[in-house]
């Protein structure tokens, strides 16, 4: 029993040590300008107004709106396009559809950084450079392979007889897809959604290269930009870091188990 | 009505109709894949053999293998390649080690393990940009690390971790370790849940101590998970960009330059599109080789 208590105390201690960087940045975000450099941890006065100032200084309104728009649009479109293809690869196979499937899978192996130059040129040629569309399109292209892979695997586990029965009842393929496959596939769709959400919400190099104007910046590029300026007051940068972290924490705490499943989806499958 | 019409079609025509719809369903994916993945890859290969500043396509000229000889004899490229290999090797080994230990700790039935699991997993949720900013703050002259070092009297003057060519790369490695230990930990934790309890209990009854249980039973059973986690860390490591860009931008004096940051600089600061494309091909080739190994080892369920 005593051994268990000591173990438990050590485990809590380890957790707190691990969280020290976050706690320290939180303490930094509440300091005055002077104490930002001199103090070690929390100071007697807590300057919560730093958060309001940071929100305005770094223009979080626009950073959040841009990130939300780009992430939601790209995740939603990827889900629609990928689930249609996955259904076809699983149950409507045509001549050569397996070859197409394996070709698309190759996309998992291509890191965005490796094709960033042609993407930049293609977006410029299409007139999409420096717009959110260039990001949404790229995120769809890089999200599709893994989404198709996971959804196809799940669709294949749904009995064929269900689809055939619907067909005999005269349901169109699109009708079967929306009325039978999608409702049955909620767990897989949730997994893919979380995986894509995290990937696109945090994506940096494409956003850095494809966006030029500050009002279009997504969160990661905006954050990287405001530390680039050496005169940025550190207590405000720290407040900005906390502000930017909170939404994902909240989503995680709300749906922990699904979140872990979504994040590790890339590892378990493929 | 509908039901009858579909029953009247002969099976052959129905099958052909399904094939056609099947193709239509995959068409958007095919278009995206060709336009924004296939063409860019081919374009990168072509650019690797060309000299181009990236503005006017008419000024593009093919120069054979010149870019390749330039890149492979470039001192900075070799340095960034070596740095990337060091980064991959050290992060992969330490992430797996600490991830595995972490999984063993949180797998015990002791109060506090859920808290520890969440604490270690928290940084995985954040973007590497945020991690980079946090650690840059903690490690600079006025950060907590230097305050502690000075308080216990290790040094009088603050150590400039990110400003020193001896420390910069290793500092980034430590920040990365802090961020992703939780990821590996959860993969191993999931693996541990799959080991039957009887197996471990039986060996304990046979007199095996904890160390023997881990080395003789847990590690051999988890070997597929170990393989996947190692390969995932290797693939992720070769692509590293965000955290280096935000913490040091490859400096000081190239001490922490990695492949992706050097590619970015050559392409978008110096407009050497051909030179940068060779670096891109190096990254793709490594990524392909490791991914193919991974697919061969894990593709049973495909």
Characterization of the model:
The complex is a heterodimer of chains A (270) and B (302). Chain A is 76% helix and 0% strand. Chain A is mainly alpha-helical. In chain A, α1 crosses α13, α4 packs parallel to α7 and α12 packs antiparallel against α13. The longest helix of chain A is centred in the first third of the chain and has 32 residues. Chain A is globular and about 75 Å long. The mean pLDDT of chain A is 88. With 302 residues, chain B is mainly α. Chain B folds into two domains: 47 residues, no CATH class; 223 residues, MetI-like fold, CATH 1.10.3720. Helices cover 74% and strands 1% of the residues of chain B. Chain B has 14 helices and two strands. In chain B, α4 runs antiparallel to α5. The two termini of chain B are 40 Å apart. The relative contact order of chain B is 0.12. The N terminus of chain B is likely disordered. Classes of the chains: A mainly alpha (270), B mainly alpha (302).
Walk me through the topology:
The complex is a heterodimer of chains A (270) and B (302).
Chain A: H1 2-29, H2 35-38, H3 49-57, H4 60-91, H5 97-106, H6 116-125, H7 132-156, H8 160-168, H9 173-184, H10 186-202, H11 205-210, H12 219-228, H13 234-254, H14 256-263, H15 265-268
Helix pairs in contact in A: 1-13, 3-13, 4-7, 4-10, 7-10, 8-9, 10-14, 12-13
Chain B: H1 2-8, H2 11-48, E1 50-51, E2 61-62, H3 66-72, H4 75-106, H5 113-125, H6 128-139, H7 144-151, H8 168-193, H9 197-205, H10 210-221, H11 223-238, H12 242-247, H13 259-268, H14 273-298
Antiparallel strand pairs in B: 1-2
Helix pairs in contact in B: 2-14, 3-14, 4-5, 4-8, 4-11, 5-8, 6-8, 9-10, 11-14, 13-14
